[in-house]
Write a structure and sequence with these properties.
Elements (H helix, E strand, L loop, with lengths): L1 H14 L2 H14 L4 H13 L3 H10 L6 H14 L3 H10 L5 H13 L3 H14 L5 H18 L14 H14 L2 H20 L6 H21 L3 H13 L5 H15 L4 H7 L14 H17 L3 H14 L4 H13 L3 H14 L4 H14 L3 H9 L8 H13 L3 H19 L1 E3 L2 E3 L5 H16 L3 H14 L4 H14 L1 H8 L5 H4 L5 H5 L16 H9 L103 H13 L7
Antiparallel strand pairs: 1-2
GO cellular component, one term: signal recognition particle, endoplasmic reticulum targeting
Family: Belongs to the SRP72 family.
Protein name: Signal recognition particle subunit SRP72
Length: about 675
């Protein structure tokens, strides 16, 4: 009976029917529960059916029979597939004999643990010592490791000499180029990978166009990422959405694409971002992406929560990120930004100060943010104090320029000059070098000289002539041929020490040496000339004699006398306020309002004067108020919404319109 069962197991195994083989193996184990071969076959059948947890349970239950030497690979593989990567590594390392299968799995485990240097060495050893049909797969894995190093560790990849004959190798090569910032080259590699992918898959008649597009999704996703990095956000967004419509089964790919769309949206289109963020929460995403990818997704979730005014959620996510990476800048910056949105600027500055004290290595970036917050609050002087506390940036030209500008805005010229002085001193200390105990002269760097010049110009601008003279003398000493600096120095001395200015003026070059030999005609007729001198007309007859005798006389245009008003009286002094509008003149008292005269007999037949409404008994206090006529005094209560004069209609316009309408109706037919 046992022999027949074994035959059944062998036949089912060859046919790939592992479910039926498992039934036969279970019958064998009922006969002998400790049969090592049967237990191994059971584990293999369970692995082939995808029941990794059950297979690992069988291994752990029969540890006395299934020792690590017997079933090390199967155990490590089950742990690897169950995402117990650390346990898989221990199982592989504890095996007494490192088989080729274990070495292959060891490389996969190291890749998942992001130990790329060890992984690279493992695959190189495998390729060197193996000769079978899986060589192409090993080279693909090796190129994937190099791409990961370039992307996540910014390591310049070495040329492995791999022939890019497959689309997988082309794709990995493109990823390595993206890590180096070579985006145009990477795009060409991806286009080649797409072409190779279509060729290889179209050869199989069973593969449909949908299958090809699904396989190309990851290549298209990387193309869209390059477009995004190049600033072509509209093209990238369109390609990302096309991939999402295909509904690929790779949850890692969907999560990355959704995250990239969220980064494009930023604080706009938050409704779409909230829909896309659900794709990043799919089951199994954490096992498909690297740590840095997962961290970037969490950062964007926190920012999205801030943009959607979910303050508690934002604080929760940023606090979690800070606990995972205490030295990282982004979590504390997100927390500070959220506090600023809640108008708690002082608390935000305090939070940043605490982080700077705890992590001095990142203090510079944090203090720059603190200074920005102080400027936003209007505390420019405090912002300057924070910036000056960043020792590694004090001497940088950008920092010096920012501080001088801010101090000038606050009219604190002494502090601005002090900033210049400290920066110049820093360069002086770092420019000198010691050689055998003696200080050897070294020319000042361009940055140092530029700072001295800017300091001198600043002092001259603010009337600090004596202080500027020392800087200008230093500049002239460095370059005695600099005429511009010498001229500035003479100008400064002329206000302080005229005699010294005269002495220095002797160093100015003579006028002959400074004269420029310029062909005026050639310059005027050049392509870039904006003004061309008109050529003189030919002179003949009397004009020629006039030109030779007394020169050309320019005709003087007669000035026309200005027109005077009709009622102008030269004996009366003109009104000095005549140029002002009437309403703005000192003697204006407003328009006199006269009583309106009754216009009896005017208008259409049977019409009465406007005063007749006062004699109408129906318009008593008990009658309901009628709506005010346009332009009447009843509209005073709406004075706050008065239309500006240029848009206001004349008060009589509606009434005139009404009269015109009545005149039109005069000849119309109608019944009583």
């Amino acid at each position: 009976a046992a022999a027949g069962l074994w035959s059944e197991v062998n036949r089912c195994g060859q046919n790939g029917d592992f479910s039926r083989a498992l039934k036969s193996v279970n019958k064998i184990l009922q006969i002998n529960k400790d049969d090592v071969t049967a237990l191994q076959c059971k584990v293999v059948c369970l692995i082939q059916n995808g029941n990794f947890k059950e297979a690992l349970g069988v291994i752990n239950t029969h540890t006395k029979v299934l020792t690590s030497d017997v079933i090390a690979f199967e155990k490590a593989y089950c742990e690897y597939r169950l995402n117990r990567i650390e346990s898989a590594l221990k199982t592989i390392q504890s095996a007494s004999q490192q088989t080729d299968k274990l070495k292959e799995l060891y490389g996969q485990v190291l890749y998942r643990l992001e130990r790329y240097d060890d992984c690279l060495a493992a695959y190189r050893d495998l390729i060197r010592n193996s000769q079978d049909e899986y060589e192409e797969e090993r080279k693909t894995n090796l190129s994937a490791v190099v791409a990961a190093q370039s992307t996540w560790e910014k390591v310049v990849p070495e040329d492995l000499g791999l022939r890019e004959a497959t689309y997988e190798l082309c794709y990995n090569s493109a990823c390595a180029l993206i890590g180096q910032g070579k985006l145009n080259e990477a795009m060409k590699k991806l286009q080649k990978a797409e072409e190779l992918c279509r060729q290889s898959l179209s050869e199989d008649s069973d593969v449909t166009e949908e299958d090809i597009e699904a396989e190309l999704a990851i290549i298209h996703g990387q193309m869209a990422y390059i477009m995004q990095l190049q600033g072509r956000t509209e093209d990238a967004l369109q390609l990302y959405n096309q991939i999402i419509k295909l509904k690929p089964t790779d949850v890692g790919l969907l999560a990355v694409i959704a995250n990239n769309i969220i980064t494009i949206n930023k604080d706009q289109n938050v409704f779409d971002s909230k829909k896309k963020v659900k794709l990043t929460n799919a089951e199994g995403v954490e096992h498909k992406l690297s740590k840095k990818q997962l961290q970037a997704i969490e950062f964007n979730k926190a920012l999205l929560a801030m943009y959607t005014n979910q303050a508690d959620q934002c604080r929760k996510l940023s606090a979690s990120l800070q606990s995972q990476s205490p030295e990282h800048l982004l979590p504390v910056l997100i927390q500070a930004a959220q506090l600023c949105r809640e108008k708690q600027h002082a608390k935000a500055v305090g939070l940043l100060q605490d982080f700077a004290d705890q992590h001095p290595a990142n203090a510079a970036e944090i203090k720059l943010t603190m200074a920005q917050l102080k400027i936003a609050q209007g505390s420019v002087t405090k912002a300057c104090m924070i910036l000056r506390s960043i020792e590694e940036l004090q001497h940088k030209p950008g920092m010096v320029s920012a501080l001088v500008t801010m101090y000038s805005h606050e009219e604190d010229i002494d502090s601005a000059i002090e900033v210049f002085t400290q920066a110049i001193q820093w360069y002086q200390q770092h420019q000198a070098r010691t050689n055998h105990g003696c200080c050897v002269f070294q020319p000042k760097s361009p940055v140092h000289l530029s700072l001295i010049r800017e300091a001198a110009n600043f002092k001259l601008k603010h009337g600090r002539k004596k202080e500027a003279i020392s800087d200008l003398e230093e500049l002239w000493k460095q370059n005695p041929k600099d005429v511009h600096t010498l001229a500035q120095l003479i100008s400064a001395y002329s206000l302080v020490d005229p005699e010294k200015a005269k002495v220095l003026s002797k160093h100015l070059p003579s006028s002959d040496t400074m004269s420029l030999k310029v062909d005026v005609d050639a310059l005027e007729n050049s392509h870039g000339a904006t003004y061309v001198r008109k050529k003189a007309a030919k002179l003949t007859g009397d004009n020629q004699q006039k030109e030779q005798g007394q020169g050309e006389v320019k005709k003087k245009k007669k000035k026309k006398k200005g027109k005077l008003p009709k009622n102008y009286d030269p004996k009366v002094t003109p009104d000095p306020e005549r140029w002002l509008p009437m309403r703005e003149r000192s003697y204006y008292r407003g328009r006199k309002k006269g009583k309106k005269k009754d216009q009896v007999g005017k208008g259409t037949q049977g019409s009465t004067t406007t005063g007749s409404s006062e004699l109408d008994a129906s318009r008593t206090a008990s009658s309901p108020p009628t709506s005010p006529r346009p332009g009447s005094g009843a509209a005073v209560s709406a004075a706050s919404n008065v239309i500006p004069p240029r848009h206001q209609k004349p008060a009589g316009a509606p009434a005139t319109k009404k009269k015109q309408q009545q005149k039109k109706k005069k000849g119309a037919k109608g019944g009583w």
